[in-house]
Amino acid sequence: MDAERVRARLLEAVGPKGLVNDPAQLRAMSTPWRDSWPSEPLAVVMPGATAEVSAVARICHEEGWPLVPQGGNTGVTGAGLSRPGGRDVLISLKRMNRLRSMDAGDDIMVAEAGCILADLQAAAAAQERFFPMSLGSQGSCTIGGNIATNAGGINALRYGTMRQLVSGLEVVLPDGRVWDGLRKLRKDNTGYDLKHLFIGSEGTLGIITAAALFLSPRPRARCTALVGLESPAMALRWLRRLRHAMGEHLTACELIERICIEVAMRHQPGLRDPLAQPCPWYALVEAGSCDEAAALDERITACFAAALEAGEVLDGVIATSLAQSDALWAMREMLAEGHRHEGISFKHDVSVPVSQVPVFIDQAGEALAARFPGIRQFAFGHIGDGNIHYNSLQAAGEPAADWAPRLPEVNRIVHDIVHRLGGSISAEHGIGQLRRQELPRYKPAVELEMQQRIKAALDPLGQMNPGKLFL
User: Fold this and answer.
1) Which of 82, 148, 249, 363 could make an SS bond with 88 (beta carbons 3.0 to 4.6 A apart)?
2) Is residue 105 domain-shared with residue 210, that is, in the same domain?
3) How many CA atoms lie within 13 A of 72 on its CB side?
4) End of a domain among 174, 201, 217?
């Protein structure tokens, strides 16, 4: 392998702006924001156009260099990082950040893969449209990464995951050929829907360079409420009551355990308890409507009053201003940051059928407490679609070094329960490096074989993002 010759070819393909040499920038692109996977790319390229991505892929294909696509480097499974040893070319799409078109008539925008999610939200709002994907990292994550991981977010209850928001894709294949699948059709029944192969593929089949994305009418009315609850079972009853009363206006329903708020308040100065008295559990909900006169607050208030009378909720607050609503959601976004300061945490992004969420939380808590006395349950997430972030914490005050070796057994306990309940060990974060060792235990052999055959058909040299998703 002649590294210098290939670097020269890459420089010719992407120009001086496209070959990263700055040590600080290289370090940032090789360092995950969470956990500590070792990463050492052979070279880092940042193409500025699809033709340059195609040229890079063709060079790597000819020279036998593995290629690792990276979005905003906000993932939590290590999927966008090169392997140690300096064998991989890391390709970042951040320079490809143009909004190619905004079609209000068809409610579709076409954006390049390096566009920041928050920028696309703002561009849609400027045209009185709404792009509903919403994540805590939306100020830095890119739409290409969102698509490659099939991101979920808080609005999946109403609008679905990234898979439901993509109309078409432009993809550079491993050999450098470009597939132009940027279709704006609501219906196209002409065979396999190829875009779905790349959505959630974690960069193992090709490089997403642009996407046609569905838009919705911009909500003009919004209502946010937080209620205190006795248990996840009561949260489920509250959710069912809301869905019956609010229908499609209900956009989000987040379940939060009390310890999550306590930890966030401990490590986030200025964060206050949301209700007058602590409650074991909370549900943060939001409804939206295109009709300014929808009176969403009145409908949620009526639901709350009925639930309070029925003993289904303990307390609650309904936001009376945009500032109050934003404050409630800011609290929700601080939960994931809080547990980073509590020592070892055992992170799980799992999903079960919505009706089984209380069962999962009860069974996982009991099983872990029996095996590891002192372990603290730390659960929050999107109860409306069955996605729970089950991030148990080590016992308070004990050495972190005593708890770190317990990760494999904690994972096995939690994931075995998820599997028995018909769930998934990854709901929205993907597999990456984090879960690839565990996947064969929970995926049927025939399903894994089909995935591997697809991988072999599109990437016969195994060039695309090796060491991720598959063993």
Assistant:
1) 82
2) yes
3) 24
4) 217
pLDDT higher than threshold 80 for residue 35: no
Residues 150 and 172 in one domain: yes
* Residue 238 belongs to a domain: yes
Among the residue ranges 2-16, 192-206, 215-229, 436-450, the one predicted with the least confidence is 2-16
Q: Pick from 303, 280, 393, 275: which is nearest to 339 by CA?
A: 393
Q: Which DSSP state fits 19? A: B
Phi–psi pair at 80, nearest 5 degrees: -100, 20
Residue 446 to residue 443: CA distance in whole angstroms: 8
275 lies in the same domain as 374: no
Do 155 and 198 fall into the same domain?
yes
Beta partners for 113? none
Which pTM value belongs to this model?
0.94
Q: Which amino acid is at 387?
A: N
C-alpha 312/C-alpha 251 separation (Å) is 21
Question: Do you know the residue count of the chain?
Answer: 471
Within 10 angstroms of residue 8's Cβ, the number of other Cβ atoms is: 12
Q: Is 448 exposed, middle or buried (0-12, 13-18, 19+ CB in 10 A)?
A: middle
Distance of alpha carbon 108 from alpha carbon 102, whole angstroms: 6
CA–CA separation, 9 and 16 (whole Å): 12
Task: State the residue for tokens 């009551």.
Answer: 241
Pairwise CA distance, residues 28 & 72, whole Å: 11
Give me 4's structure tokens. Answer: 């210098």
Q: Are 368 and 375 in contact (CB under 8 A)?
A: yes
pLDDT at residue 293 above 70? no
Q: Which two tokens stand for residue 124?
A: 């849609």
| Rg of the chain over all Cα atoms, to the nearest angstrom | 23
Please name which of 137, 113, 144 lies closest in space to residue 34, comparing C-alpha atoms.
137
Distance between CA atoms of 107 and 314, rounded to whole angstroms?
Answer: 42
Quote the pLDDT of residue 269.
83
The one-letter amino acid code at 441 reads: R
Q: What is the band of 377 on the pLDDT scale with cuts at 50, 70, 90?
A: very high
pLDDT of 404 > 80? The answer is yes
Q: Which tokens hold the place of 344?
A: 């070892």
- Per-residue pLDDT tens over the stretch 118-127: 999 999 999 9
- 332 and 417 belong to one structural domain: no
Selected residue with higher pLDDT from 37 and 392: 392
Contact of 255 with 281, CB cutoff 8 Å: yes
Residue with tokens 């001086």: 16
